[in-house]
Write a structure and sequence with these properties.
Number of strands: 12
Order of helices and strands: HHEEEEEEEEEHEHEE
C-alpha cells in the first residue's frame, strides 16, 4: 500500500488550526493537489546556496520577480510570503483565523495556486501554496545571520520533483519523468 504522506501531514497541520471540518477538508484538498511539472531535461541539477548555519537556499522566479526559497525538508508544504500576492490575480481562500503554529508563528494564512513558478530549468504550474506573513520570520532570521526569504520549498515539492539534496556540493538534483 502506497501512502501519500504529505496528505496525512497536512491533515495534522490543519487539525492544529482548529478549523471546521468543511474548511479543513477544502484546505487539504487544495494543498494536496499535485502541481504540473515540466522540463526539457529529465534530470536537472539546481545550484543551492548554503549559509553558515547549514540552511540551503535556491533561486526561483515568479511573474518576473526573483525569489529566494529556503529548502526546508521539515516543512510539509510550500509556504510563500503573502506579500507575493500583491499585484497578482491569484485567488486565495482563508485557511485559519487563529494560530498556524510551526516556524512562522501565529497569524492568518490563505491557500491558493501559483500559476507558474520557475526553478532553474524546471517549470511548475498550478502550484498549491500556503501564504503567510513571513515578516517576523525574516526579522529573526536576518538578526541571526540568515537570509531573508520569500518562502519555503517544502517536502511535498521535494517528493514531487523526486529531488536529492547533495549537501557537500550544495546542489539539488531533480529527476523528472519523460513526457
Amino acid at each position: 500500500m502506497k501512502l501519500h504522506y504529505p496528505f496525512f501531514l497536512l491533515m495534522f497541520l490543519l487539525s492544529a488550526c482548529q478549523l471546521p471540518h468543511q474548511d479543513m477538508s477544502r484546505s487539504v484538498q487544495i494543498l494536496s493537489t499535485p502541481p504540473n511539472i515540466a522540463s526539457i531535461e529529465t534530470e536537472v541539477t539546481i545550484p543551492l546556496e548554503a549559509d553558515n548555519e547549514g540552511h540551503l537556499y535556491l533561486n526561483a522566479e515568479f511573474q518576473g520577480k526573483r525569489l529566494v526559497l529556503l529548502v526546508d525538508t521539515g516543512a510539509q508544504i510550500m509556504v510563500f510570503s503573502n506579500t507575493l500576492l500583491q499585484g497578482t490575480s491569484i485567488k486565495t481562500e482563508v485557511l485559519a483565523d487563529g494560530l498556524l503554529g510551526g516556524m512562522t508563528g501565529p497569524g492568518k494564512g490563505t491557500v491558493g495556486f501559483i500559476p507558474v513558478l520557475s526553478i532553474d530549468k524546471v517549470i511548475i504550474s498550478r502550484l498549491p501554496v500556503l501564504f503567510v506573513d513571513l515578516d517576523g520570520w525574516n526579522r529573526r532570521s536576518v538578526r541571526s545571520g540568515a537570509r531573508k526569504i520569500d518562502g519555503f520549498l517544502g517536502s511535498n515539492m521535494l517528493l514531487y520533483l523526486r529531488a536529492e539534496i547533495d549537501y557537500k556540493k550544495s546542489q539539488l538534483t531533480v529527476s523528472l519523468p519523460r513526457t
